[in-house]
Design brief:
InterPro entries: Acyl_CoA_acyltransferase, ArsR-like_HTH, GNAT_dom, HTH_MarR-typ, LysR_HTH_N, MarR/SlyA-like, WH-like_DNA-bd_sf, WH_DNA-bd_sf. The chain is of the alpha+beta class. It has 13 helices and 10 strands. The chain has 3 domains: 149 residues, Orthogonal Bundle (Arc Repressor Mutant, subunit A), CATH 1.10.10; 26 residues; 165 residues, Aminopeptidase (3-Layer(aba) Sandwich).
């Protein structure tokens, strides 16, 4: 069984690449057996140069890339190979010293006729193979390329679809999650498992190594012993509840800033904010953060800070939108592996 064929359209690029590699290797072997020295991947550019030479004109790299419909790096690779093997040379544009022109060499003019019968045979055999097909291959490829060009790229199509699906899912979720019905409630021992569950979702997703409960793991202490780690130190833990289901959580507790005892400032640290994965992006996290900042102001706390990671982009945007700014870590580094962003807020 040809596994790649079972993937159908999802493997289109891979199948075309496989077919291209097979044809390129066959042509390379043909050249070798006929005593001809040319890299098959450079054939389109060489033909373009010959056409330009016939018209007594040269061509620049950018123009060549445009006419062949490939990137400049791809053209540069072809130019490097052809120049190395003596098929072309570069010359400065007499009207612009910054621009290099490509021109076929004497070797090209002398040896190209030797390729003509080989190319004629290759063309004949490929044409015969394509004539036996039910659908015309070249016309189908032309049509597919034109369709792709008309919409921009496969990338733009897929990203638009994913964005549309995301917007639709958020819209549907919003209809099921009225902001006015989201409660922020204080710690209750019956929700201890929810505090651990919600945080393990994102820890497992973004930091699989930190998700393991090592004996001295700071995460383990915070998640499995929240009363002693947060509440006993004068901290707080809040939950977001919707229709009697816990969908988010956030902790805040007093913490010292800086290593130097004489310069230490007491502040509040936000910690272990988590929202159920299926309900993220709907304002639950923002409601928890605003609630925590209101409590900090009530306590006359002037400094609130947190540690997060650069890959948690949505969380960073949330914190920035509530007033936090990225700052240098007062201790020089985080206590958590993977945490590389320190954010602070002056109330």
């Amino acid at each position: 069984m040809d596994w790649i064929r079972t993937l159908e359209s999802l493997s289109l690029g891979s199948r075309l690449k496989r077919l291209s590699d097979q044809l390129m290797q066959d042509v390379a072997d043909i050249y070798k057996q006929q005593g001809l020295d040319l890299n098959p991947t450079c054939f389109p550019l060489l033909q373009l140069l010959v056409k330009q030479s016939d018209n007594n004109c040269m061509i620049g790299v950018s123009e060549a890339a445009k006419q062949l419909g490939v990137t400049q790096p791809a053209i540069s690779r072809m130019v490097g190979k052809l120049e190395k093997d003596g098929w072309l040379q570069r010359q400065k544009d007499p009207q612009d010293d910054r621009r290099q022109l490509l021109v076929a060499t004497e070797k090209t003019c002398q040896q190209l006729p030797q390729f003509e019968p080989v190319w004629a045979a290759i063309r004949q055999q490929l044409d015969q193979l394509m004539q036996q097909q039910q659908l015309p291959l070249l016309e189908s490829i032309n049509e597919f390329e034109d369709q792709l060009a008309s919409v921009g790229s496969l990338k733009s199509l897929v990203l638009q679809q994913l964005q549309s699906e995301l917007s639709q899912s958020v819209s549907i979720a919003s209809e099921k999650l009225p902001a006015s019905e989201i409660e922020v409630i204080n710690w209750d021992p019956q929700f201890r498992d929810d505090f651990c569950r919600l945080n393990r979702q994102w820890l497992k997703k973004y930091f699989p190594k930190r998700n393991n409960c090592y004996e001295n793991s700071l995460d383990q202490k915070q998640l499995e012993h929240p009363e002693s780690y947060y509440l006993a130190k004068g901290g707080y833990i809040w939950f977001a509840r919707y229709q009697q289901k816990i969908i988010g959580c956030l902790a805040m507790y007093p913490h010292s800033l800086g290593k130097n005892e004489a310069e230490k400032v007491r502040g509040m640290e936000l910690s272990k904010m988590a929202v159920d994965e299926s309900l993220q992006g709907l304002g639950v996290g923002r409601k928890l953060v605003i609630n925590a900042l209101d409590k900090a102001r009530e306590l006359a706390v002037s400094d609130v800070f947190l540690e997060t990671a650069s890959q948690l982009k949505a969380a960073i945007i949330l914190y920035q939108n509530t007033g936090f700014t990225i700052a240098n870590h007062p201790d020089g580094e985080s206590r958590f592996n993977g945490a590389d962003v320190y954010m602070a807020l002056k109330l």
